[in-house]
Amino acid sequence: MKFIVATCLAGSLVLAGCASTDNSASSSSTTAKAGTAAGGTGARPSGSATPVYPRDPNLSPLTSGQAHSQSVVTLAPPADMWDRIRRGFKMPNLESDLVRDREQWYASRPDYIQRMTERSNKYIFHIVEELERRNMPTELALLPYIESAFNPQAVSSARAAGMWQFMPATGTDFDLKQNIFRDDRRDVVASTRAALDYLQKLYGMFGDWQLALAAYNWGEGSVGRAIAKNQRLGLPTTYSDLSMPAETRLYVPKLQAVKNIVANPQAFNAELPLIANHPYFQTVPLTRDLDVELAAKLADVRIEDFRALNPAAHKPVLIAAGTPEILLPWDNAAVFKRNFDAYTQGQYASWTAWVVPSTMTVADAAQRSGMSESDLRALNNVPPRMLIKAGSTLIVPRGARVKEDVAAVVADGGHLSFQPEIVTRRTTVKAGRSDNVASIARRYNLKPAAVADWNDVNTNHAFKRGYSVVVYLPVRASASARVGTGATRGRGAVATSKRGGTPSKTAARGSSSAKQVVARQPRGGTPSKRKR
């Protein structure tokens, strides 16, 4: 009996094991089929079983690869501006004796390097920021050292102005305003924008930074002609191969020398001042016309520092319509805003603009504006012996009753034009037969009222023959004046007949019966009446 029970138990175990094996195989097969249907690879069996790939022809198995970088990226931020500039060097180096010569020139003048690098402290962060934003070589931030030693007030003998030394016409081409209120060639932000625009344009023309710099100094037309000449001769057209003026020949070597000193100041025994990698200034909106001195006071900065950041404003007043923003040291911008809003001590501006209604003398303009003639000349740069033409704009004191600021049309188009002041001489001439005030006035292109006033007579007065008539004539006109029956010059004059006939022989010999008395009239005044 025990044997029968043991036999049955063994049979049960065998049947159970067969069922488990079948279920496992069925389960594995189902899983593989499900994975294939879903587009996957399915479960990969162990051992040497082949993998299962999807049937989609657009898919392929992943292969092993190797990641690599073209350059090493430094995670630490630049320690100062010099470090930041070095990291952005992209221009090919120029190797020549001229570079070595300029290196020695700068290295032998440590005081000069110190002055110009300290001066650049206010501006170089902004320039580097703009260069990096445009993905341009940071060597170009050193270009103002070559152009102006970073002096925004620099003016060359050829009338180039500002840090970037723009000529008037080139400045106009790049939207740098130049009027009586401001000269954007000196403006820190505007001139930097224009200079980088110009350099980008030149690089686009020549595809080479050294040629672009040569064109910046010499002009794109000159560089283009030099390249064309070398091409005709079968010569290379690099910067070093072109024939150019001495100034342009030294231009890139100067920049390369400064670059080398900045890259390794220890090699040249040069000491560069610390310039923090931080903005020096902020832009602050200007909502009212404002005296320059008051602006500096409200910002709590020295007037010299204010002018260094706002060098385009060359008048004692800032016109809000033409100067919508000013630059202030970073920490002083908030001080200015707070003090400006709290200011209650009177007008913001003590100067305004006056458009001259008609051509007038400086004396007349000064009288009408309430200034002395010397002050008006100095403030508005009026040269001597000039009249102020109608439509010109003058800076004049702003009266207490003037509430409006200068209009935008005046701020944008304000100009100052002159015409030569006519120098006259007091001349006496002999009246001819039937001469009167009107005939004398017609003969010399004068106003009858002026002739009558000079001679203390009425406008319808008739002169007796031979009467000495006083007239004030321009210097050029008096030399060929015709008087009554004959005009005379002071020395060796030739008398002509009243109707323009042939000169008389007697007059030609210099023995005329009429004499001319010449006295210089003071400029700007009214001729005094003849005293009898």
Give a structural overview.
- With 532 residues, the protein is mainly α.
- It has 4 domains: 81-268, Lysozyme (Orthogonal Bundle), CATH 1.10.530; 281-342, no CATH class; 351-420, no CATH class; 422-476, Membrane-bound Lytic Murein Transglycosylase D, Chain A (Roll).
- Helix content is 40%, strand content 9%.
- The protein has 21 helices and 11 strands.
- The strands form 5 sheets. Strands 10-9-11 form a 3-stranded antiparallel β-sheet.
- Helix 3 crosses helix 11 and helix 15 (362-369) packs across helix 16.
- The termini are far apart.
List keywords for this structure.
532 residues, mainly alpha, Lysozyme, three-stranded antiparallel β-sheet, two-stranded antiparallel sheet, 9% strand, disordered C terminus
Q: Radius of gyration in whole Å, from Cα? A: 43 Å
Strand content: 5-15%
The class by helix and strand makeup works out as mainly alpha
What gross morphology would you assign?
elongated
CATH topology of the largest domain: Lysozyme
The CATH architecture of the largest domain would be: Orthogonal Bundle
CATH class of the largest domain: Mainly Alpha
Number of H/I helices: 21
Q: Note the main sheet.
A: 3 strands, antiparallel
Strand order of the largest sheet: 10-9-11
Low-confidence stretches: 18-47, 477-532
- Terminal CA distance: 178 Å
In total, the number of strands is 11
Mean pLDDT: 82
Region (Disordered): 22-73, 483-532
Signal peptide: 1-21
Organism: Variovorax paradoxus
Biased composition (Polar residues): 60-73, 503-515
